[in-house]
Amino acid sequence: MIAVIVMGIGTGLGLCLILTWAIPPQQTLRERLSDPGGGEASVGEPAEVTWATALARPHLPGLRALGLPGSGLERDLRVLGRGVDTHLAVKLVLSCAGLLMPLLLQGVLSLGGLQLGLELPFVVAVMLAAAGFLLPDLEVRAKAARARAEFRAALSAFLDLVWITLAGGAGIESALLAAAEVGCGPAFTRIRRALAGAQLTRITSWVTLRRLGEELDITELAELAASISLAGTEGAKVRASLSAKAGALRTHLVADAEAEAQAATERMALPVTLLFLGFLGFIAFPAVTQVLNGL
């Protein structure tokens, strides 16, 4: 019964994939107008074309129609500079590989005269397919969290540079451009690209920084844009505010680093305990064996 149910599910999924490949869903007018490729390019989103994307391209519209990968995961992909199509293609390829691997292994074993039955390979295939579909999301979320932490560290240095440039008598626009030109790394590259885009499109720099903070889900960058907008529109003095923000951001980063180190220390308690128990087992095994043999 389990084999029949799993085979039915697999047949239905296969037919859905075939229909999606043969009759791809058409984009609505709203989706076409909101497509970043047809209008303003999203900050930091590259046009990636890999073998996985080329292999799974016919099925990508169907996955997008299901609401994948989600707004939160799209922001994580923007932080990593990875395309949505590439991510969906990797999920689909890994899922199909996990689905086919136990079945291929079953076929190889059957050629050697070994039979494992039908239930176990199908159950393992479904589990591997689900794992292959979910693991890329977990990887992206973990890497995006580290990338945001690195961006915040670079942002604190950027705030210090802006504050020093403002103290030297520069204007807010020139201070932002000069501070962005000094630094290096992915965070400063994104900030320079955003400020260059603001110059080309003739919009204010704080609007572009706020948009970048919303796209990357970095609230500190949006707060910086709000503070700078006060200086640009109301003429407010923001040097002290930027210095305080930089200090608070560094304090927050130090607290996060200490919490992460404490969590890593706590996670090491279980492996050390298991090693200690294994060592006690190796020591006590000969004595216990002799006692049992002497009974």
Provide a compact summary of the structure.
The protein is 79% helix and 0% strand.
Provide a descriptive summary of the structure in words.
- The chain has 295 residues and is mostly helical.
- It has 2 domains: 2-23 and 42-144, no CATH class; 148-266.
- It is 79% helix and 0% strand.
- The chain has 13 helices and no strands.
- The chain has helices at residues 2-22, 29-33, 51-56, 60-65, 71-80, 84-111, 119-167, 172-182, 186-201, 205-216, 219-233, 239-267, 269-294.
- The longest helix has 49 residues, at 119-167.
- It starts with a helix and ends with a helix.
How would you name the oligomeric state of the polypeptide chains in this document? single chain
What's the total count of β strands? 0
Query: SS-based structural class?
Result: mainly alpha
**Count of discrete structural domains:** 2
* Shape verdict: flat
- List unreliable stretches of 5+ residues: 35-49
The value of Rg in angstroms is 27 Å
Helix content: over 70%
- Termini, distance in Å? 50 Å
Instruction: List the helices and strands in order.
Output: HHHHHHHHHHHHH
Q: How many individual helices?
A: 13
The overall pLDDT, averaged over residues, is 76
The biggest sheet amounts to:
none
Strand content: under 5%
SSE arrangement:
Layout: H1 2-22, H2 29-33, H3 51-56, H4 60-65, H5 71-80, H6 84-111, H7 119-167, H8 172-182, H9 186-201, H10 205-216, H11 219-233, H12 239-267, H13 269-294
Helix pairs in contact: 1-7, 5-7, 6-7, 7-8, 7-12, 8-9, 9-10, 10-11
Any descriptors?
13 helices; flat; mainly alpha; 295 residues
